[in-house]
Amino acid sequence: xxxxxxxxxxxxxxxxxxxxxxxxxxxxxxxxxxxxxxxxxxxxxxxxxxxxxxxxxxxxxxxxxxxxxxxxxxxxxxxxxxxxxxxxxxxxxxxxxxxxxxxxxxxxxxxxxxxx
Length: 116
Prior knowledge:
Blueprint: H1 5-9, E1 14-23, E2 26-35, E3 39-46, E4 49-55, E5 60-63, E6 73-74, H2 77-84, H3 96-99
Antiparallel strand pairs: 1-2, 2-3, 3-4, 4-5, 5-6
């Protein structure tokens, strides 16, 4: 990695990613927007329906009509803890020692108890 890359990644405060894929003949598009440590929103479109997942350091909400939800629902506590690990827009490996995250897959991280 070039010497300036970690320094530049530490400047990242927001990131937006977009993608699409096909599952069992259904086209799915996903847009993820993150504000580092503050919040994340996933917009998901499938089968002509749109839904979202919103996560903050204190709460989470899902609205997934393609999974049968008629109204937005609060995230269960265990799902919220796992989702909050994704609030790191810089990625889990940048400064992993400072962030106290174990790199081995399947191990719980020290910070919030979520899976890597």
